[in-house]
Amino acid sequence: MTYKDRVGTGAHATGLKLLHLKVAGALFCLTFVLSASAVAGSIVVVYPRPENQSDTRATYPARVLEMALRRVGKDYIVKPSDVSMLQGRALVQLRVNENINVLWTTPSIAREGGLARIPIPLDKGLIGWRLLLLRRQKLDEFAHLHLPDELQARMAGQGHDWPDTEILRTNGFKVDGVVGYESLFRVLSQGSIDYFPRSVMEIWAEADTHKAQDIVIEPSIALHYPNAFYYYVNKSNVVLAADIEAGMEKMITDGSLDKLFHQTFDDSLSKAKLQTRRVVELHNPLFPDDPSAHRAELWFHP
Hints:
By secondary structure, the protein is an alpha/beta fold.
């Protein structure tokens, strides 16, 4: 083989290598473009991230949202926001359509401006059934309270921007509006408030998380007022609102919403023993005229 032949063979080999590299590069680019298109074709739904990792309150609502949107035949991806948000900030962000596009909360006329509420209670109204968190040394005192007047005279704690704060005050209760979810447990353990009413769906996990602060659940009293968690979206997001409602209706029809509800909350309801408690019925001036109120299958009844 001459030098010329060797050079020609090497050039041919080099050319083949370059061709292979170009083909491989083209295939990689094509794969990347297709993957990017798949992501771009998805509809990302973002809800507010809880304030801390130990806060499990978002688990059930996020699961219902995922299941509902899966039933409408579109490629929805449900995820938490990049940063945690207090409820007031989340409502502002939703109104301006930035960073989040859905949240769940209890209704009030003031907070619904610019928002669309999906008219199906995702929690069957459990948020309106309230037990009391106390310092352990207060248990005997609360067991002998004359209801409701002696309870109204003691200081309750609630979030400063929660509708429950206004509900309790309207019903004659003394309420300290506290900034920050975790701050409420701190001021309770310090004695700055006497009790912290919490939903039966939240209170057991919260009591367990904060047991080192000597916080316990009062065993004999319950508060009740008409209330529920609803999903909200920006009013301009009519497609998402319609899809969430359609998906939830399908969950009601196929029984999956009821099944998930019982799987999630039956243990808490069993421990709560609502039938044996002294129940204080309260008026909720914020609760809207809701067609779902007449659908018995959507509400919990002890």
